[in-house]
Each structure stands twice: as structure tokens, then as C-alpha cells.
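Key result, reporting period 2: structure in, sequence out.
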């Protein structure tokens, strides 16, 4: 139970760090006086990390009050981690590609926390947390529901506001339908791969951890 208490405190700390980074990133974006700053909540990273804050707070309460996490919480956490970790990897690739093209991309400390630090720490916690339940393989296709819905809304909204959160969704910045479809397919494949790794990690038997049984 002592280990659960420690992880409860860590979950609460991570939620606080995530919330602080989100607030900083919001005001940093607004200070730029650009369309991107005004559309802060349109980013998949922001939406998934807002959800992560809520899930981590719930997880902290569960870790401080129960010897094991309920199955529904493990499922919720697996989905949210899939989205935040994938968003972090995608952001790293975008920054890398921008550097190759000679395009400047400012990365404030809050972006580094949201895209790199927190995904790494939460991934490690997913593996190490005591009293953690395994999750089923249906998490993999289910994890695609949010990015698909987000993408649909983004493509519908983009022409009205004249802005897209990621360049590969903007028809003006891709060479044509082929590049758009290939890039989107690669993004969905990345979500599926991360979800697969999360399921595999949860189903690895560790002493004192319940086996997957969904």
C-alpha cells in the first residue's frame, strides 16, 4: 500500500505539472497575437492533455484509497496515454522536419513538458505502477476514435477559420490528396502502434500485479 501511496502522490504531481504547462502554453500562444494562439484548444495535444489532467487526478484518488486500480480506470488511462504519447512523437517529428526545411519552430518549456517530459514519465509509470490492471486488445482500434473524430472536426472547421493546427492537414501545404492520405494513414498507424505497446506492457505479468482479464 505504501507504493500505491507514492504513486498516488506522483499522479497528483504530474497532474499539477501538466495543468501548469497548459496554462503557460495558453498565455504564451495568446501573447503571439496569431491565429494559432487564438485556437489553442484546437490542438490534439492540448485536448488530450486536458483529459490527462482529469484522469491523473482520479488516478491519484484511487491510488490513495484502493490497493488496485479498477478496470475502467486502466482502460481510460491506456487510451489517454496513447493520445498524449503519440502527440509527443508527432510533435518531435514536425519540429525535426521543420528544421530540415529551415523553418523556425519555437518550443517553449511548456511545449517540452507536454510533448516530451510528461509522455516519457507517464509511459514509465504505466509500466511500474503497482496495483495496475492489464487491458484488452480492443483498446487498439478504440484508441483511433478520438483522433479520427478530431481530424474530421478539424477538416470541417479549417476552411472557416483559415487555419489548421498541423501543416499536413492544410490543403495549401501538401502536394495533393496522395500526400494528405499517406500522412494521415501514417499518423493513425502511429496511434495504433503506441496503443499496441501500451497493451503489451500492461499484460506483462509482474509480481503483485493482476493479470489482464478483460
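The corresponding designed sequence is given below.
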Amino acid at each position: 500500500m505504501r507504493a500505491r501511496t507514492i504513486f498516488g502522490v506522483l499522479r497528483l504531481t504530474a497532474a499539477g505539472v501538466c495543468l501548469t504547462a497548459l496554462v503557460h502554453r495558453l498565455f504564451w500562444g495568446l501573447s503571439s497575437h496569431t491565429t494559432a494562439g487564438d485556437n489553442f484548444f484546437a490542438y490534439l495535444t492540448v485536448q488530450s492533455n486536458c483529459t490527462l489532467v482529469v484522469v491523473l487526478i482520479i488516478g491519484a484518488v484511487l491510488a490513495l484509497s484502493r490497493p488496485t486500480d479498477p478496470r475502467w480506470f486502466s482502460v481510460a488511462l491506456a487510451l489517454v496515454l496513447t493520445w498524449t504519447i503519440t502527440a509527443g512523437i508527432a510533435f518531435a517529428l514536425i519540429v525535426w522536419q521543420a528544421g530540415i526545411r529551415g523553418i523556425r519552430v519555437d518550443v517553449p518549456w511548456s511545449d517540452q513538458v507536454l510533448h516530451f517530459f510528461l509522455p516519457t514519465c507517464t509511459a514509465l509509470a504505466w509500466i511500474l505502477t503497482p496495483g495496475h490492471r492489464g487491458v484488452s486488445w480492443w483498446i487498439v482500434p478504440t484508441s483511433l476514435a478520438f483522433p479520427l473524430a478530431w481530424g474530421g472536426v478539424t477538416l470541417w472547421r479549417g476552411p472557416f477559420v483559415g487555419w489548421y493546427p498541423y501543416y499536413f492537414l492544410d490543403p495549401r501545404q501538401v502536394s495533393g490528396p496522395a500526400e494528405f492520405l499517406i500522412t494521415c494513414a501514417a499518423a493513425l498507424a502511429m496511434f495504433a502502434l503506441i496503443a499496441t505497446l501500451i497493451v503489451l506492457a500492461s499484460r506483462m505479468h509482474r509480481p503483485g500485479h493482476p493479470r489482464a482479464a478483460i
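The chain has a mean pLDDT of 88. The chain has one domain: 2-203. This case is discussed further under Risks and Mitigation.
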